[in-house]
Amino acid sequence: MMPRERSRFFSAAGLFLAIYLYGFFLVPMLTDDLYITARYARNLAAGVGFVFNAGERVLGTTTPLLALLMAGPMIVLPATLALRIVSALTLALSSVAFLFFGRQFGRPLAGLAAGCIFPVIAPVVVCYGNEIPLCVALFLFCAGLIQARRARLGGLAAGLFGLARGEGALFGGLLGLWLFRRVGWRRACGYALCAFAVLGPWFLFSHQYFGAWFPRTLAIKQFQGEHYSHNPAYPPFLSGTWQFIRLSWLWPGSVYCFAAWLGLLRLLKGRGGRILLAWALAHTALYAILRVPGYFWYQYPLVALTAWSAGCGIELIWDGFQRIAAQRRWGIGRAGASVAIGLLALLTLASAHQALRQDSQALANAWLTARYQSFRQMGEYLARHAAPGETVMLDDIGIAGFYGWPCRVLDVHGLIHRDLPPAIISDGASLALARRPDWVKIAQAPSRDRYFTFQAAGLGPSLVYERVKQFGTPPQDVALFRLLPKRPPRGGAKAGIP
Questions:
Q1: Which of 111, 335, 477, 495 has most Cβ atoms within 10 angstroms of its Cβ?
Q2: From residue 427, how far is each of 232, 385, 390, 451 by CA, in Å?
Q3: How far apart are CA 15 and CA 124, in angstroms?
Q4: Alpha helices in 148-184 (DSSP H)
Q5: What crossing angle do the helices spanning 132-147 and 64-74 adopt, rounded to 10°?
Q6: Which strands make up the sheet holding 451-456, listed edge to edge?
Q7: How confident is the model at residue 270 (pLDDT cuts 50, 70, 90)?
């Protein structure tokens, strides 16, 4: 191995190991959507099938590729350990992808700095474990391979991106058009064939197995965006975009923020920066047109652009320092350069970490932690006490569903069910009356209420549930109620809906 190749190998391996250890030991996994995918993986590893509930073939995860990656280790390892290993690997892979992207586009230092910055940007930390790092890594590898004129490998990366998230097929296609413009139709055809070799079998399997080409998530998210835009939990997509920009770009006094703004001077001058900017703009336009809620993890192309811009800013600072050193004839050896780069990276990491802690309340990090703890406790209780075949009705199905495995789940939002009438989606009372779940989760139920009743209009009480256990602490506490086989004593039932 040549000295230059050896240096590249060790820098990539060192970055991968550092980010892997950071993700494995330091970052909590709190978001509910992550555990939806993890439950699909757990059922697949157990031989139940690629399903959330046994026997219900509905694709309710947006990222089949991540579910497949999780399922492999779950065959031989405890599910929670396998989940943490795969999450750390995808985070480390995204950092190496930035390094590869930077080298292919002539900005190796920017790629190294961006690879250090990306894992500590707030949405990546708060949503740790989901598909954000994997999607960013595959897009960067695809663009870098096209830049290197390795069309077939780029096509494989584009196909995997489409498996990691549905819109990846669209953006992989746009990168294919760029390849066609650069090198002509022959290599572009090779790119397309390799991408289709990955996506084609999956779409055929999906249509045969699930009865649908695409996940059910898009329809559910559009329903939420159209009917609940007044609810702060479901902000319009452009509002979510502005929230990310405000928290990541407009916080004064931060080296990280300063580096990102400074990097704009170089971002548009290089092809790599223009590609990331075009991706972020096209993604934002697509999601705004689809009218889905503006969840902050949906901003992942903008997160990648932010990390790249900050990396370009650090590179600009270093280049300026080198010019000053050359004018004054300072001797800067390889060790001095390494120390200077390391100090700049540490400053940026510290600033990004400080920004995350400063804005943790706005990003609902504490709220996510409290909700995770209460839902995990409830899921573990269900795993111990629910009889085989019993069903629990939940409005957030991921955490409780994963830790409550193999208890069946009835989703209020209809994400994992195909046959729910639109009239009862997101209507917990109507859904309970129609399906009669054995267990029901009620948020913030007063401790004095022993019973909970779902009442049909004009017909009196129909279903009565008895409080079993309380989990968590206010205001993120949840209560678990169990269906009574017969009516409680007269006057003992409390009417209401979840």
A1: 111
A2: 18, 27, 21, 20
A3: 17
A4: 151-164, 167-183
A5: 110
A6: 408-411, 391-394, 439-443, 478-483, 460-471, 451-456
A7: confident
CA distance 185 to 66: 32
Paired with 441 in beta bridges are 480
Cα dist. 439→420, 432, 435 in Å?
Answer: 19, 10, 11
| Sign of CA pseudo-dihedral 402, 44, 172, 272 | positive
Measured in degrees and rounded to the nearest 5, phi and psi for residue 419 equal -100, 15
CA distance 25 to 278: 35
Q: What is the pLDDT of residue 498?
A: 41
Tokens encoding 42: 């757990």
Q: Give me the half-sphere count of Cα atoms (radius 13 Å) on the Cβ side of residue 182.
A: 18
Assess contact for 70 and 130: CB atoms under 8 A.
no
- Which residues touch 311 (CB under 8 Å, ≥6 apart)? 98, 102, 107, 109, 110, 111, 112, 113, 114, 115, 117, 259, 263
Can you tell me the distance from the alpha carbon of 278 to that of 282, in angstroms, rounded to the nearest whole number? Answer: 6
Q: Is the pLDDT of residue 343 over 80?
A: no
Predicted confidence at residue 13, as pLDDT, reads: 82
C-alpha–C-alpha distance, residues 379 and 324, integer Å: 60
Terminal CA-to-CA distance of the chain, rounded, Å? Answer: 64
Give the integer Cα–Cα distance in Å for 318 and 371. 43
pLDDT for position 293:
82
Residue 93: closest CA among 70, 63, 115? 115
Helices (H), 210-236: 217-227
The proportion of the chain whose per-residue pLDDT surpasses 90, expressed as a percent, equals 41
Give Cβ neighbours of residue 137 (< 8 Å, ≥ 6 apart).
90, 93, 94, 96, 97
The three-point CA angle 331-18-172 to 5° equals 100
Domain residue extents for the chain: 14-358, 366-483
Q: Determine contact, residues 216/415, Cβ cutoff 8 Å.
A: yes
User: Residue 296 in contact with residue 127, Cβ under 8 Å?
Assistant: yes
Q: What is the rounded CA–CA span in Å between residue 265 and residue 277?
A: 13
Do residues 191 and 158 lie in contact, with contact meaning Cβ atoms separated by under 8 Å?
yes
Q: Give the pLDDT band (50/70/90) at residue 194.
A: very high
Nearest-CA neighbor of 308 among 145, 481, 172, 143?
143
> Where do the DSSP E strands lie in 361-474?
391-394, 408-411, 439-443, 451-456, 460-471
pTM for the full model? 0.91
The half-sphere exposure of 190 on its side-chain side, counting CA atoms within 13 A, is 12
Q: Work out the pLDDT band at 225, boundaries 50, 70, 90.
A: low
CA distance 198 to 208: 16
